[in-house]
């Protein structure tokens, strides 16, 4: 690969990252908190790429025929990078997330109290962790609101959310069993806002610490712009 092609490659990668930041599609790959670092990376790559291209143009030398022919092959490497900028893949769903690892019993610890109100909004991963490890029993007797998509498993309906720690490469699926819901009414990957109570003692190692929720209210919602939980 010639130095000129390398500079163009840097420029195109920087522009692709900048375009994903402008369109907001970068959240399909990484956490929103990484936005400033991606912006810095995009600026650095664009500056390096432009500087290199300008330098090569000023010192351009006509290549031999054989080298020119091979350089066209290296340009094919730029096609996938260009496609990332214009054809953003969708965020991961239940099928794309990694299967949960083997889970050992979490160490019990007190969690902060839930927000005040009749049915506070709680993130699905937080509800799963509270049900498994909260020694303060903050979920007991409390009605909460969860948001996620339906996952059909073993004849039941679960509410799921794809959780990422850093980027989509470490994505895993957090789930809550929904008691009383008929899968025929809620097809796979239907987004819901569910109100109910986590059944005490329903989170146990035999089921991978997936708690069960007694549902009192269900509302279909549109797929959110950012489908991940953190």
UniProtKB/TrEMBL annotation:
Keyword annotations from UniProtKB, A to Z: Membrane, Transmembrane, Transmembrane helix
Record's compositionally biased regions (Pro residues): 98-118
Domain DUF1980: from-to ranges: 128-230
InterPro entries in the record: DUF1980, DUF1980_C, UPF0703_membrane_permease
Region named Disordered: 98-119
Record keyword Cell division present: no
Residue intervals passing through the bilayer: 34-54, 75-92
Protein name from the UniProt record: TIGR03943 family protein
Species of provenance: Mycolicibacterium arenosum
């Amino acid at each position: 690969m010639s130095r000129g092609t390398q500079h163009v490659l840097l420029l195109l990668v920087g522009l692709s990252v900048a375009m994903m930041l402008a369109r907001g599609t970068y959240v399909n790959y990484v956490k929103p908190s990484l936005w400033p670092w991606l912006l810095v990376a995009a600026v650095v790559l664009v500056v390096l790429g432009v500087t290199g291209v300008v330098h090569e143009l000023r010192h351009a030398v006509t290549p031999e025929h054989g080298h020119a022919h091979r350089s066209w092959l290296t340009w094919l490497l730029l096609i996938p990078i260009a496609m990332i900028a214009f054809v953003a893949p969708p965020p991961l769903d239940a099928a794309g997330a990694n299967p949960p690892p083997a889970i050992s019993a979490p160490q019990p610890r007190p969690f902060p109290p839930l927000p005040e109100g009749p049915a506070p909004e709680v993130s699905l991963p937080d509800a799963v962790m509270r049900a498994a490890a909260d020694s303060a029993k903050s979920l007991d007797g409390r009605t909460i609101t969860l948001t996620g998509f339906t996952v059909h498993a073993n004849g039941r309906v679960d509410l799921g959310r794809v959780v990422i720690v850093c980027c989509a490469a470490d994505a895993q699926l957090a789930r809550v069993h929904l008691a009383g819901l008929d899968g025929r009414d809620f097809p796979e990957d239907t987004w819901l806002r569910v109100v109910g109570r986590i059944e005490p003692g329903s989170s146990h190692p035999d089921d991978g610490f997936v708690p069960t929720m007694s549902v009192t209210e269900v509302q279909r919602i549109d797929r959110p712009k950012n489908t991940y939980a953190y």
